[in-house]
Amino acid sequence: MSPRSLFWIPVILRLLLxxxxxxxxxxxxxxxxxFVIGFIAVxxxxxxxxxxxxQLSLWLENPDQIxxxxxxxxxxxxxxRLYKLRREDQKNRNDLAEWLSRFRQxxxxxxxxxxxxxxxxxxxxxNPLAEKHLRLNLDRDKGMRVTNLIxxxxxIDYIILGKxxxxxxxxxGERKLIxxxxxxxxxxxxxxxxxxxxxxRLDQTRRDFIANASHELRTPxxxxxxxxxxxxxxxxxxLETRKQHLDLMVDQGKRMQNLVEDMLSLTRLxxxxxxxxxxxxxxxxxxxxxxxxxxxxxxxxxxxxxxMDGPDLLGSSDELHSAFANLVTNAxxxxxxxxxxxxxxxxxxxxxxxxxxxDGIGIRPEHITRLTERFYRVDKGRSRExxxxxxxxxxxxxxxxxxxxxxxxxxEVGKGSSFIVQFPVTAVLAVNH
Length: 433
Ligand code: ADP
Prior knowledge:
Layout: H1 3-29, H2 31-61, H3 74-109, E1 113-118, E2 123-126, H4 128-134, H5 138-141, H6 146-149, H7 153-161, E3 168-172, E4 175-184, E5 188-195, H8 197-233, H9 239-271, E6 279-281, H10 283-298, E7 303-308, E8 313-315, H11 317-333, E9 340-346, E10 353-358, H12 365-368, H13 380-385, H14 392-402, E11 406-412, E12 416-422
Bound molecules: adenosine-5'-diphosphate (ADP).
Adenosine-5'-diphosphate binds at residues 326, 330-331, 334, 358, 360-361, 363, 371, 376-379, 383, 388-394, 417.
């Protein structure tokens, strides 16, 4: 049966009942009594309807607190339908709240900041990353104009010009951001922020590296070219001068080779995006080899000792060899003749330690924190004289980061330096390995 007939049938039945009571009253007690009885019946019906209307108005005011009675006649159906609508509405609201919470969760996992604004740029919502990038606070700033919150002239110009098809690149505090404004729907706009601080810094480092490397390579190349030109222009140069020129060219060639090898090592280390694949490292063998090489490099100018009291390691033999050898080679190069160099491998509560101690020229404190930067040298002349490339400690730093080890440098000018490498306990090779 249709809802319309469901409504009308009880109404008609009730009116028929009233008419019947009226008719019977008339028949038995006369017309006046019939009218009175009819009037009372209509009044009763009207009072019942008013009572339900009152119940309905109370319920509408506070549908969560008050329960509707079951009703009578057509009211039963009206109340039942109202209840159904209310349940559906509640379910829709719950679904919407759940969807909204999932949407917010997804937005907070995004690698970019997202700000939702209305058509006149009043802040409606933003994710935590946008709060961080743009220094906003949703609770505090909601409902405020975004141009009053992000007080950057570049951003204001971007908004005024309205050329949103192109992203804006701007600096906010320490951060470099790429900002994109996307209008959506009729009256909403989304602002997407992407933090490029690290990539930008990396690009700058790469640019500096290329500029420095080209500069470093140009110097020996110029020297070699100069001597070659002399040789071409003066074919009958005496043998002694020619030998001197050749020796200098060999020296410069060696310098270029060292530089290219160090640059390749560093680039290779940087290109590896997986952690070290741990293999057993026989530290005693590795350090004995390094000691032998350093004695050869020193040519008897230094006393070089090796003290071995630490365990074997888990790590990359090649990388550790390169890092340890760099530190020992530096000690030889920056320690005047007759100096003493100690190579120490020892146990320690925090994990094994590798120490290279020399009584060489030492380093002033202001240089110490910068030594692992590429091409950073305290004394360029001295570094070149000893075939230095300025990349040794940068290589050491990379290898140690990959092995979760820490480098500490202690030094005093004129007294000497100690380069201490602290490995974590987890780097120790288990005895039954
Ligand atoms: P370089 O090839 O110039 O030695 P490194 O990166 O190995 O480059 O070292 C950077 C700088 O650190 C060196 O130029 C030198 O000034 C300083 N340095 C490194 N080791 C020592 C040391 N044992 N004693 C004094 N200075 C050192």
